[in-house]
């Protein structure tokens, strides 16, 4: 897979002043039938960083992630994006503001070609999405950008292949191209290397690094070697609560984190 | 010449010549159900919505068009369009109320609404209740041309059907259609890309209801009566059968499915109840052996053959240095 880091377009770098933290969670809590999956979590993601959310199984990572992307609504607490309270917004609304997520199960549109997958995403900012009376030439202007995005993730040759027929690694790459089509300010990746063999992990890691240029990335990740060579900051969750936050060196030296991971092995 | 264009021209020629050889009323019935099946395919095949009450639009439009023709001198094509628009309006209202539900819940809610429409129309004076609405006239086309005989009326129905099929094709191959297919494939992902899937589904539902209404309105003018049968749930079931038989989500499959079912009903009519058993057996065979439906299976076979034929040359093409792909 070839990646052109410099070619992946950065969103307005000029907007980088204001606050240091682009995404902030305050007292985030989520109950499922009385059980607190996430309890009073505070989290701040620095602008321009690659931030990981880790923790043993059942620590509430995915719930926390789904709350931040508004796939779930919090029971209490609030989420600030660029200083604005987004707690009450729908996931499609936060996506339009530039907070765009990926999914753990590779989320492509299997019956659409690679190019169409990316073009659908480009359509969300194009304004012809409801035009049922026009032919597809109406979205032809998007093809060039879609092709560029496919090239960036190394899928230029697969543009006319149905997503269902792509290999697992290529599906993940296509998903990243689709997500980048929205020019996200914050990219939220749910276990980007889940289910991958090590031969796929390396290219995906490079892809994420390239995509992170000029934007902020928050990811949930199991693979600690990926976390260590990709992420600037780490939040560790356990039992739905924040256990530690800091750089990899700080966090990995934290005795509470070590015991959580050691104790969490058989969970 | 473009092979697609040749197919379209041949189909057009056949359709124009057909009433010289086949009973026009049978042809018109097929066309009505072809359009009805297209409308259903737009929802289930291209949006992933299973509506189990599509008969309410089909039968509802039939009564409205019938009533317009019986009580006014509005020309027949305008009356048909009014029926279709009324069905679209009904679709908009019912879509608003049901589109938030997914899967089987959506199917059940639409079924409930269609039963509601059934009983409301049963009670209303103008529908003639159990007796149905009889003697719907075919007012002159554009207020000028007499179309009382079936032979000339066939061409009116053919023209309306051609427009409807083109509209269906256009919707499926539009920027909107591309988003619909994405919703069918993965709704949560579409939402995460900043779209409101519910709005798209509502527009699709309204368009589909309008098209189903067009089919029902045409049927009322073909048979010159409208009955409660057109509103009943077995009709909603039959259109599902037609769609699955021909091939869900294929452009032409449900059209063939509709034609096959109507022809079968026509040929097996003499066998009474046995016709239903025949239908059931055929459906079972299709579900078990041809899961993509007739047209879907043919398409898959062609794709398979094309790929087998292409393989050696494809290897040559990829022999040039390309970006290396892991796995």
UniProtKB/TrEMBL annotation, chain A:
GO cellular component: plasma membrane
GO MF entry, a single one: ATP binding
Record keywords, A-Z: ATP-binding, Nucleotide-binding, Transport
Coiled coil: none
Family matches, as SMART domains: AAA
Keyword Transport: yes
CDD domains: ABC_Mj1267_LivG_branched
Protein's name in the database: ABC transporter ATP-binding protein
Organism in which the protein naturally occurs: Mesorhizobium zhangyense
Automatic annotation (TrEMBL), chain B:
Membrane topology summary: Multi-pass membrane protein
Chief localization: membrane
Sample GO molecular function, one term: branched-chain amino acid transmembrane transporter activity
Ranges annotated as spanning the membrane: 49-68, 74-94, 106-124, 152-172, 202-227, 239-262, 274-294
Assigned keywords, A-Z: Cell membrane, Membrane, Transmembrane, Transmembrane helix
Pfam families documented for this protein: BPD_transp_2
GO CC annotation, single: plasma membrane
Subcellular location: Cell membrane
Designated name of the protein: Branched-chain amino acid ABC transporter permease
Originating organism: Mesorhizobium zhangyense
Lineage: Bacteria, Pseudomonadati, Pseudomonadota, Alphaproteobacteria, Hyphomicrobiales
């Amino acid at each position: 897979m070839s990646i052109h880091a410099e070619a992946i377009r950065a969103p307005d770098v000029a907007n980088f002043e204001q606050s240091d933290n682009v995404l902030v969670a305050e007292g985030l809590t989520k109950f499922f039938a009385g059980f607190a999956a996430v309890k009073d979590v505070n989290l701040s993601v620095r602008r321009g960083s690659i931030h990981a959310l880790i923790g043993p199984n059942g620590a509430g990572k995915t719930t926390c992630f789904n709350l931040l992307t508004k796939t779930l609504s919090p029971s209490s607490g609030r989420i600030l994006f660029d200083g604005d309270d987004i707690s009450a917004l729908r996931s499609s609304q936060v996506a339009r503001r530039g907070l765009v997520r990926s999914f753990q199960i590779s989320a492509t549109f299997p019956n659409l070609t690679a190019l169409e997958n990316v073009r659908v995403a480009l359509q969300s900012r194009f304004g012809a999405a409801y035009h049922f009376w026009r032919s597809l030439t109406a979205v032809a202007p998007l093809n060039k950008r879609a092709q560029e995005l496919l090239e960036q993730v190394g899928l230029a040759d697969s543009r006319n292949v149905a997503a269902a027929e792509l290999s697992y690694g290529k599906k993940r790459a296509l998903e990243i191209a689709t997500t980048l089509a929205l020019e996200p300010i914050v990219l939220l990746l749910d276990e980007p290397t889940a289910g991958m063999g090590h031969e796929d992990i390396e290219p995906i890691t490079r892809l994420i690094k390239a995509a992170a240029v000029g934007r902020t990335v928050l990811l949930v990740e199991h693979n600690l070697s990926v976390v260590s060579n990709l992420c600037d900051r780490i939040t560790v969750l356990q039992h739905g609560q924040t256990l530690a936050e800091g750089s990899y060196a700080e966090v990995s030296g934290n005795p509470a984190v070590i015991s959580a991971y050691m104790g969490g092995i058989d969970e | 010449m473009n092979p697609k264009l040749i197919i379209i021209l041949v189909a057009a020629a056949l359709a124009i010549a057909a009433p010289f050889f086949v009973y026009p009323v049978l042809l018109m019935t097929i066309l009505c159900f072809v359009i009805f099946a297209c409308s259903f395919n737009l929802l289930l095949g291209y949006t992933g919505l299973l509506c189990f009450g599509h008969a309410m639009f089909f039968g509802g439009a039939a009564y409205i068009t019938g009533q317009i023709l019986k009580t006014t001198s509005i020309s027949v094509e305008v009356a048909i369009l009014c029926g279709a628009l009324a069905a679209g309006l009904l679709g908009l209202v019912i879509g608003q109320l049901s589109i938030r539900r997914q899967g089987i819940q959506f199917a059940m809610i639409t079924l409930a609404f269609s039963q509601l429409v059934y009983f409301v129309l049963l009670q209303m004076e103008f529908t003639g209740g159990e007796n149905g609405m009889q003697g719907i006239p075919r007012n002159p086309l554009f207020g000028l041309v007499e179309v009382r005989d079936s032979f000339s009326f066939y061409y009116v129905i053919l023209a309306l059907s051609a427009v409807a099929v083109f509209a269906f094709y256009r919707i499926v191959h539009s920027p909107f259609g591309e988003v619909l297919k994405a919703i069918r494939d993965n709704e949560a992902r579409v939402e995460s890309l900043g779209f409101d899937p519910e709005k798209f589904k509502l527009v699709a539902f309204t368009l589909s209801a309008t098209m189903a209404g067009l089919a029902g309105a045409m049927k009322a003018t073909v048979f010159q009566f409208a009955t409660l049968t057109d509103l009943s749930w077995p009709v909603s079931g039959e259109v599902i059968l037609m769609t699955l038989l021909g091939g869900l989500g294929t452009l032409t499959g449900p059209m063939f499915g509709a034609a096959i079912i109507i022809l079968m009903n026509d040929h097996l009519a003499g066998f009474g109840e046995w016709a239903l058993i025949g239908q059931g057996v055929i459906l079972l065979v299709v579900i078990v052996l041809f899961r993509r439906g007739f047209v879907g299976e043919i398409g898959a076979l062609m794709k398979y053959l094309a790929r087998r034929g292409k393989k050696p040359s494809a290897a040559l093409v990829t022999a040039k240095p390309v970006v290396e792909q892991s796995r």
